Amino acid sequence: MSFEGKGRVMPDKSKFEKLKEELQEALEAKETDYDRILFLSTEIAKFDANNVRFTVDAGHIDRLGKELVGKPEIAVAELVKNAYDADAKEVSLVFEQAWYVGGKLTITDNGTGMTRDELINGFMRISSADKVNNPLSRIFKRQRAGRKGIGRFAVQKLGKKLTIITQTSEMTEAIKVNIDWTKFEKNKEIGTISSQIESTDKLMHHGTILVIEQLNGSWSDADIKRAYRYVSKLIRPAHFKNKLSIENQENTFSVSFYRTRISEHTIIADEQKMIFDQALAKITATIDAEGNVTWGYDSKHFGKEENFDFFGKDKLFDDKKELDTYNLKNIFLEAYYFIPSSGFHAKQDDNRITELLKQEGGIKLYRNGFRVSPYGDQYDDWLGLDASSDSRVFLPPYANRHFMGVVEVLDLEGQVFEERSSREGLLENTSLTELKEFIYKVLLSVVFRIAAKRGRKIYTGQEDWEPKPRIKPHEQVQETVMQLQTAFSNVYSESTPNNEEENDTIVTAAISNEAKTQIDSLLSTLNEQMDEVRAERQREIDEIAMLRVLAGMGVSIGEFSHEVRHYSTEFKLGMDRLHKDLISTQSEMLSSQSDTLNKNLDGLLSYIRYFDANIAANVQRELCSIDLLEQVELFIEKMQPIAHRQNIQLIVEPFTTKAYTLPMHVSEWGSILINLFTNSVKAISRANTKKRIIKYKIGKLNNNIYFEILDTGDGIPVENYSLVFEPFFTTSAPTTPFSTTQQEISGTGLGLKIVKDIITSYNGTISITEPDEGFSTKFHIEIPQA
Amino acid sequence: MPHELIYIDDDNVGEYCKSLNSACPGEINVTEEKPLQFDQIRELFNTKNYAGVILDLNLDKTPTGELIDFKANTVAQWIRDKGVREPNFDIPIFLFSSDDNLKASYYKEHTAQVLYDEVYEKHTRLESDIENVGKELLDIINGYNQIKSAKNANPKSIKNLYSNILNCSIDFLDSLDSRFIPSEHLNLEETNLPSFEFADFILHEVIWHPGILIDEKLLAARLGVDIELSADWEVLRNKMSDLFGYQGIFGKAWPRWWAKELVSFWYETFNEHLRSVPADERIKKLQEKFRLTKLKSAEPMSTRGWPEKYKSTFWTICEFSKKPLDPTDGFLVNEKTLKVWQDNRYFSIDAVILKRQKNIHPLEKNRLLEIDQIIDNNLKAMSEY
After folding, report:
1. What is the longest distance spanned by two Cα atoms in chain B?
2. Residue B375 with chain A: CB contacts under 8 Å
């Protein structure tokens, strides 16, 4: 069965013949028109009755460029990758007039460059298999980043015109190709669009320059930064100075972004670089090709140190392995150390730095110039910094969010630090373990050193720790006063009457004798006041020391009276049974002794109960208006057994029903009442009288609540009325110069001082006044009412 | 054989046990046990019958340090549930706890409060009065046993049962407020309720709340006697007991007198209504009737700054000072629920105004403000400033 005459369209014979003739002419012409020959042969091939061929529409380029690379920064990254694959060590990207659409981008790399063949069979060939066939770069054996051979069409995305100038070190001239992407229109056969190729003078020893003109988009600083960030995720950031470029160690790669306005190149600062100036210290460590180790830090605040030996390091690292004994080579660490909110950098940058460190903090690993994931990614803790820091064994901050840095390893053969086949990370071998240890130790050594210099503790319970001496504020003021004096005396000497030159008359006029006297007097007043401040301060220090002792004692009493409750009940129960048994013996002596014992125990238990309740009241921190009548009633109820034992009568005489004080702590009234009560009890027992009464009077006076306690004790001599409120004044046993603090406190000398402090802190008053008829002492307290 | 009590507490409570046991020698035997996990506690009760249980509120930990995540309330509820069907579990439960723990949880919700027959605070009541506590435990255990035998005697009616356990005639019960018994238990079937139900009612509503019964202080107040100053009080009290003392359950640990019978006695003896007789006249008549010379009438209270004299027609006591009081000289105490046959309780003016007792009935607030103002003005006038 034949389709002839039915399905097959017979070629137009005359057109076919005409094309053949035209091709013949074109082949024979003196000037070969390649485009025309290609076009004619393609057209002739369409008359092949037995075969069909795929053809590529030129518009495909447009689709490749646009669909492969969605964003301009990815396009730029693709081109940087190409440079890397070409064994370039440096790539620069210069944006010219790029603020607006139509600008120019020049990408220059110092890679191997391309020969004419390589250009035609490599660069100009779509989906070239070159990178698949040769996965490692020629010189540095880099793992070539580009794989599909189509990344170059990214340039089409960027701009309308591309000029390639490439040269190898062997070539004497460079090759220049101009590609006009606008010619790649739809409905045109791709092979028939030619781009001009020419030889030109070499612009560099070797390398490739891509000039992209008529940029499709505008490039703001933010756009460029974005492109930079994208690229810097792939390669070691340029601002980390590359120390590995020592001899024979040339496999490095850096990218710089510039912007040109008129003729000047301006580096577009990236965020990271901006904050490095604010770092507390820059930490570096190098292990060179011979295995020599250098490490140390450089800090604006704490100077510079290298390979230092620091005290206590044997305590800090378990394995005791010294930093110079690691079996590593070609390692370079550069890290910036930050302690946000510590006052080492500008406050306004605090949030930004903290935020950036949160995202970008950590030590990133670069192998032969290329980033190895996931080391140093957000949430990655390959050095164990977060884990160790969280354990809070060491106190200074050293989590990942306190560093921003890179560690670079040079391993051209790829044998020391082997990549996993998945390209995600390195094999966990001895070298990697050693590297982790080394970096961890370097970082911590510096962190601890800086902590020591800041006067901070490194670990809890550190014995050799001494806080950094601090210049006290009053000493600073003193210093300033002295400087002021010197400054003034300089002014005087310059304006002495002996010097009568014209230009000094203004100064002389400004500082008249009157003013001079005034300044002198002010300065001397200032000096006197400074002395007073110092004395006042000393008093305060003494008082704080005392309060600290008292607070400690208070805590102990609280603990004691609470804990002792467990025993008190058992004690009391045992005592009761014993008492019962002793009474049953019918021995008068035994039962009377046991009776006394029982009463004493009751007294003790009342005290314990009172203190326990009082301490429990301390738990309530809020201030509240105190019903003084209620407080006194409650107090008396608790103290009744003690008073009873001492045969003392307690009387309350209210002179108002509304004795509400301004907001205070309940426990403060507890302190006031117990101090005054014990004073009275002691005074009564010293007086040894028959009339044993303590009386409380509570009333209102103007806008105050008054509270009086009267007793029938031995009284206080008038000359001591004001002295009793002084610390350490006591009527019972005078403190001697040899008495200890403990004695001073327990010797009652502080009770009234504390009472007075509480009352005066609420703008109240306490005084000893003329006692009522029949009483020997009267304390009068006034406190503002609610 | 002494009654066996088990006391579960994580603290060492050996001293409590000894003191409780020596309070009622040969009658109770309290044994200390450490808290255990629930299964083990259940085992403990299944292997031995106890006459009563003492629980520490916070059981906390087993002796081996395992945490216990339930409180005494859980054990108590379990016992109450079992007690409905099993007489061995129909027993009194006592709570011993520190005041801190009671405040921290027990007083904060009321559902657990009905589980226990009585709650004792460790550092106050148990420390100072453990001998009487021991007697109370014994009396409650005995009371439970009396209820059980009364139930087992197949009473014809609920009144029969009550006449048995309250130890009074049915006629007498009938003479009381008609709402007293029916208000609680209506029919014969309810004699099948667990003993706890009866014990709870009698303890909380009859013994511990004045109304049907009155205690010694109230008896003395109504008789106008000052207990402290009357050497013959004991004699008089015993005579009153002979005449109308309460002889029912729980009456040993909590001596009580029939309130109604006191009024009847006075009316029958002196042909007058006791309520309106001043204290000194009451004393005079008692002295004559019983030939007791050492009786002294109680003095009415006084309040600094309060111009009125307290009346001596005592009928109640001040709940703060426990001194005799005519209710018109007091403020009504605020009580959540009061049965119609129960008496109101009062604080004296003194307790409220000067001793700061605050739990008074809301209806008394305005009166309080008025009296407070009068006293305040008078007190200020007394001040020397």
Report:
1. 75
2. 657
Residue of A nearest to B368 (CA): A657
Helix (H) or strand (E) holding B161: helix B158-165
A538 or A352: whose pLDDT is higher?
A538
Closest Cα in chain B to A634: B355
Listed range (A325-329, B181-185, B269-273, B297-301) with the worst mean pLDDT:
B181-185
In the chain, the amino acid numbered A145 is: A
Contact A576 B15 (CB under 8 A): no
Q: What is the mean pLDDT of residues A13-35?
A: 84
Contact between chains at B127 and A577 (C-beta distance less than 8 A): no
Chain B, window 294-353: residues with a beta carbon less than 8 angstroms from a chain A beta carbon: 304-305, 353
Strongest mean pLDDT among A7-21, A731-745, B151-165, B283-297 = B283-297
Residue A741 has pLDDT above 50, yes or no: no
The backbone region for A57, taken as left when phi is positive above 0, alpha when psi lies in -120 to 50, beta otherwise, is beta
Which range has the worst mean pLDDT, A64-68, A649-653, B156-160? A64-68
Cβ(B55)–Cβ(B96) under 8 Å?
Answer: yes
Find all residues with CB under 8 Å of A272, minimum gap 6, and list them.
Answer: A237, A239, A356, A360, A404
SS (H, E, C) A630-678: HHHHHHHHHHHHHHHHCCCEEEEEECCCCCEEEEECHHHHHHHHHHHHH
Determine contact, residues B11/B56, Cβ cutoff 8 Å: yes
The Cα A723–Cα A718 span in angstroms is 10
A655/B383 touch (CB, cutoff 8 Å), yes or no: yes
Instruction: Give the torsion sign (CA, A180, A182, A183, A187).
Output: positive
Instruction: Give me the amino acid identity at A473.
Output: P
Taking any CB pair shorter than 8 Å as contact, residues of chain A touching chain B are 565-566, 568-570, 572-574, 576-577, 580, 605, 609, 616, 627, 629-630, 633, 652-658, 699-701, 706
Sequence-ordered list of residues with C-beta below 8 angstroms from that of B178, at least 6 positions apart, any chain: none
Q: What number of other Cβ atoms are within 10 A of residue A423's Cβ?
A: 9
Residue A546's identity, in one-letter code, is M
A109 pairs with which residues across the strands? A91, A208
B9 in helix, strand or coil? coil
A566 and B122 within 8 Å at the Cβ level: the answer is no
pLDDT greater than 60 at residue A250: no
Q: How far is B254 from chain A (nearest CA, A)?
A: 22
pTM of the model: 0.58
